[in-house]
Design a protein that fits this description.
The complex is a heterodimer of chains A (321) and B (497). Chain A is 47% helix and 4% strand. A two-stranded antiparallel sheet of chain A has the order 1-2. Chain B is α+β, with helices and mostly antiparallel strands and 497 residues long. Chain B has three domains: 33 residues, no CATH class; 340 residues, no CATH class; 110 residues, Immunoglobulin-like (Sandwich), CATH 2.60.40. Chain B is elongated. The chains are: A mainly alpha (321), B alpha+beta (497). The interface between A and B is large, with 48 and 40 residues. Chain B: It holds the Pfam family Fer4_5. Chain B: Keywords: 4Fe-4S, Electron transport, Iron, Iron-sulfur, Membrane, Metal-binding, Transmembrane, Transmembrane helix, Transport. Chain B: This is Cytochrome c oxidase accessory protein CcoG.
């Protein structure tokens, strides 16, 4: 009986095996070194110390979720410190940007490669945080939310115009200087009949060379346009940036370019709203945002260069100065 | 039990002048079983001979390189660091004499590691655990620490007696002296380590004036501690219990790999031998245990290949010395193969085959990796260009109907001078190019050893933007040196595919 309980012994090494066998392979049961055991005990002691010093145990309700530990360690606090540190390190660059723009305008930023890259990076990150929900990650826009990359500006595409749009918002009544205007809802408020709206819709489409059906009454449309619309959209349909009346001749449509969409805009009188950011973002961040949007490619004076094939930044810098 | 194991030099009839039978047992001998194994102190006896000499030479070379390399200078111009070997973490660069690597080139390091692993496989397949026996830092530093120990406390027998003796002034100063020198070596080891990560001379000055970075002190302390404990205290325990290599190497050797081998065919039957007795009908092993006493791992090589054996060959020196004294040929313990032992026993001649399938395989792989890395290194450009087209939005339609795409150009200048690169864009049809921040021409200014991004807008008139996508090639040229780099991308027009 006792014989039976003895573990088997490996012939070659003379060491006991664990007694298990896998495909003829057995495992030697060598003893663990004693110091290894001590290391194990030491790790237990360490764990206890760790639990005392660091937050480790769930606490009963009312005690903030968990124990604080003697070190009062908190990752959340660490992140706050790291963020403050980051802010402090970015501070000088933001200050430099603000100063450069104040003194030399946005083109001055273009002359300093490092500042330019900082502006683009800071602007991109602030844009992602605050604007991308409405304007798209890259500023490409959606129906009702303008594309900020093209050269068609509702409220003006100079750096100062863009800056003011961001500061004061659009139709944001809480801000005293907000950009404001209101197109009448010609259909909903029954200022024009259905036929009149159809006629003026066809006429508006011809302004940007869209094809209209052959039996469209363009003469009536032109007449209504001059009477009802030209005061805002101008005689030639090129719009008026001072009141945010879009250019109707360039085939870039904020509310869509199908006949139905254009007709609907005239019917309801669109009322696009964008919040003011003055109270929400620090001034240098707004400056960075405005510069970023300006430099996305559509900024006025920036885009003029694109008419020629080679850039003429030197001339541009001179003219801006 | 333990005390008897280590009783020095009790002799029982000398085999030859000066040949004593040592009373020593292998630490891994099957003895009384305990649940947890108590460590047996090992007192390796000093040997003289070819392999001991080779190990001393290697030790001096390896440690010399390790401690002194950070002080070697290399001229990289006024902008670059002047240290030959430097891992520059803050600037994300690695310097090795004429080689400079950027983070995106870590594959060289990967290649180097693959090479190191393959070389280890090859050497192991050929010669067994020579890495462990000669080159492993654990072996080298332990060897050095044992030498220091010997200096203060004497050779094996003296050390055993000293350890057993009660505390005395003699014992105290010897022990203290040993630990002080150990600590000094350990500190130099930790100190040299951090010099690889910062200019050595600057760091040394900052280090002693207390102005070095905290990480420098932490790593210094860490490596000092590990050197001191691993080489001073833990020694063979590291190889036996901590290191995975002894487990892996079993799969890397075969019956024809060289290994430190006790030639059973010649040694057995072993037994005591008195001067003048006949050698007929017996083996050459006189069971003097000189090999066991010399072993830094504390094992008996005569038990055959063992996990613990690091292949340091010191038992060969020990045994050769004895064989000389008893007047038998050397090489009772020698580099030999399992296969040869079997062949000799069967009466066949020994055979040495170094060209074996696994050896050839490793050699071919090594040659292949070397060739790839060399080709990469030779063709390494000092100018890099990468274009990233904005995909959100994919394209922009302008008021006049023309279409514009925006690109971010990522330019790397690996040279140590500021460059003014001219940018050329070619596509069919040719688009208008606008470079944000360019002053006059399409010139990209980029500082030495830097990466910079540039915004580029390409515009095509509506009439030209007929195809869905148009291939575009960006080329940058350094007019000074004539170097160029190019990258390809596409222009998306928004036209139906």
């Amino acid at each position: 009986m006792a014989e039976h309980d003895k573990p088997p012994v490996d012939e070659i090494s003379g060491v006991e095996t664990t007694g298990h066998e896998w495909d003829g392979i057995t495992e030697l049961d060598n003893p663990l070194p004693r110091w290894w055991l001590w290391c194990f005990y030491a790790s237990i002691v360490w764990a206890i110390g760790y639990m005392i010093f660091m937050p480790a145990l769930p606490a009963p309700p009312g005690f903030d979720g968990h124990t604080r530990g003697l070190r009062n360690h908190s990752e959340r606090a660490n992140v706050a410190v790291a963020l403050a540190d980051l802010e402090a390190r970015r501070g000088p660059m933001f200050a430099q940007l603000q100063q450069t723009v104040d003194e030399g305008g946005v083109v001055a930023v273009l002359n300093d490669g490092d500042l330019l890259n900082f502006t683009l990076a800071a602007g991109r990150s602030a844009f992602g945080d605050n604007c991308a929900t409405c304007h798209g990650v890259g500023g490409g826009g959606f129906t009702g939310y303008p594309n900020l990359r093209d050269d068609d500006w509702i409220w003006g595409g100079s750096f100062d115009d863009i800056r003011h749009t961001i500061v004061a918002g659009i139709r944001w009544e809480e801000h005293p200087e907000t950009r404001f205007s209101e197109m009448p809802a010609f259909g909903r408020d029954q200022l024009l009949s259905r036929e009149e709206i159809n006629a003026v819709t066809d006429y508006v489409m011809t302004l940007s060379s869209l094809t209209v059906s052959e039996n469209a009454d363009l003469a009536l449309g032109a007449e209504i346009y001059q009477r009802e619309c030209a005061s805002c959209h101008m005689d030639d349909g090129r719009g008026d940036q001072s009141i945010g009346a879009p250019n109707l001749t360039n085939n870039i449509w904020l509310y869509g370019g199908s006949r139905e969409q254009i007709r609907h805009a005239i019917h309801r009188g669109p009322y696009g709203v964008m919040p003011a950011w003055e109270q929400r973002l620090p001034e240098p961040v707004i400056t960075a945002l405005a510069a970023y949007v300006y430099l996305l490619g559509g900024g006025e004076t920036l885009q003029q260069r694109e008419a020629g094939l080679a850039p003429q930044m030197a001339a541009e810098t001179a003219s801006a100065g | 039990m333990n005390l008897i194991h280590n009783r020095p030099g009790a002799s029982g009839g000398d085999a030859a002048d000066g040949v004593a039978r040592l009373d020593v047992d292998a630490v891994n001998a099957v003895g009384q079983r305990e649940l947890y194994q108590k460590r047996q102190q090992i007192y390796p006896k000093l040997v003289h001979g070819r392999f001991r000499l080779a190990k001393w030479v290697f030790l001096v070379l390896a440690l010399g390189v390790y401690y002194l390399l950070p002080f070697v200078r290399w001229d990289r111009g006024p902008e670059g660091p002047s240290q030959a070997v430097l891992v520059d973490f803050p600037n994300a660069r690695f310097y090795f004499f004429f080689i400079e690597l950027w983070p995106q080139e870590v594959y060289y390091i990967t290649g180097l590691l693959i090479l190191a692993a393959l070389a280890l496989f090859l050497v192991t397949a050929l010669f067994g655990r020579v890495w462990c026996g000669y080159a492993c830092p654990q072996t080298v530093w332990t060897d050095l620490f044992i030498a220091v120990e010997r200096l203060f406390e004497g050779d094996r027998n003296k050390r055993i007696l000293l350890d057993r003796a009660p505390m005395s002034f003699n014992k105290a100063w010897r022990k203290t002296g040993k630990h002080v020198v150990w600590l000094a070596i350990a500190a130099a080891t930790g100190g040299a380590w951090i010099l690889y990560f910062h200019d050595a001379f600057d760091l040394l000055r900052d280090f002693f004036t207390g102005q070095a970075a905290l990480t420098a002190y932490i790593f210094f302390a860490l490596l000092t501690f590990t050197t001191y404990s691993l080489a001073g205290t833990l020694r063979e325990q590291v190889c036996t219990y901590m290191c995975p290599w002894p487990r892996i190497q079993g799969a890397l050797t075969d019956r024809e790999s060289l290994a430190v081998t006790y030639r059973t065919d010649r040694g057995e039957p072993r037994g005591r031998h008195k001067k003048g007795e006949s050698w007929d009908g017996r083996g050459d092993c006189i069971d003097c245990k000189a090999c066991v006493a010399a072993c830094p791992m504390g094992i008996d090589i005569r038990q055959g290949p063992q996990l613990e054996c690091i292949g340091c060959a010191l038992c060969i020196d020990a045994c050769d010395d004895i064989m000389d004294k008893v007047g038998r040929p050397r090489g009772l313990i020698a580099y030999d193969t399992d296969d040869n032992i079997a062949r000799r026993k069967a009466g066949e001649p020994a055979r040495w085959r170094f060209v074996r399938p696994r050896v050839v395989l490793y050699a071919v792989l090594i040659a292949g990796v070397c060739a790839i890395m060399l080709a990469g290194l030779v063709s390494r450009e000092e100018l890099g260009l990468h274009a990233d087209r904005d995909r959100n939005p994919n394209f922009v339609v302008l008021t006049d109907g023309s279409v514009r795409n925006a690109y971010t150009l990522n330019v790397q200048n690996k040279a140590r001078v500021t460059r003014h690169l001219s940018l050329a864009v070619s596509a069919d049809p040719q688009p208008g190019v606008q470079l944000l921040g360019a002053r006059d021409e399409l010139v990209l200014e980029i500082g030495p050893d830097r990466t910079r991004t540039f915004q580029v807008f390409l515009t095509l008139p509506r009439e030209a933007a007929l195809r869905h996508s148009i291939p575009v090639m960006f080329t940058i040229t350094d007019p000074q040196t004539g170097e160029t780099a190019f990258t390809q991308d596409v222009f998306v027009t928004g036209a139906a595919p």
